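Our consortium's second objective concerns turning raw sequence data into structural hypotheses that experimental partners can test. To show how far this objective has progressed, the report includes one record in full. It was chosen at random from the queue rather than selected for favorable results. The single chain below, 143 residues long, was entered without modification.
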Amino acid sequence: MSTIDALGSSVTAPAQASGFSAMTSEDFTKIIFTELGRQDPLQPSDSNQLLEQISMIRSIQSDIDLTDKIKGIATQNEFAAAAGLIGKRISGVSEGGLRVEDKVLAVSRSSAGPVLSLATGDRVAMSNVDQIVDLAAGEGSGG
């Protein structure tokens, strides 16, 4: 019993980790010993089944963590792509639902993704841009 107490007292989870992703091997060992200590000796539980369940839960948590990291990277890439449009002429649908076209002056971050601020004062979500024109190439074409 002192082994379980010693394991339990030394367990600390990192602040960023959550759920089963924060579980250390010491936590895992503690769960196994606790489960084995509480089972009915006349009807022992299948420890392999417990190990499979915990492994599956940890795998699901790892997938969730990976998905969150990938979403974060995608958000950063989308913002970088939007920043690359500064100084270019775009057309698209403004936040007010109107078709607009003008030079991009700035990019801001919103909960829906990057938003482009145009010289006209209109704002266009990056997802609503449908045409991008390089001003150096577009100035001679009359548009």
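The partners drew two points from this record. The CA atoms of residues 21 and 96 lie 43 Å apart. The chain has a mean pLDDT of 78. Both points have been shared with the crystallography group to help prioritize constructs.
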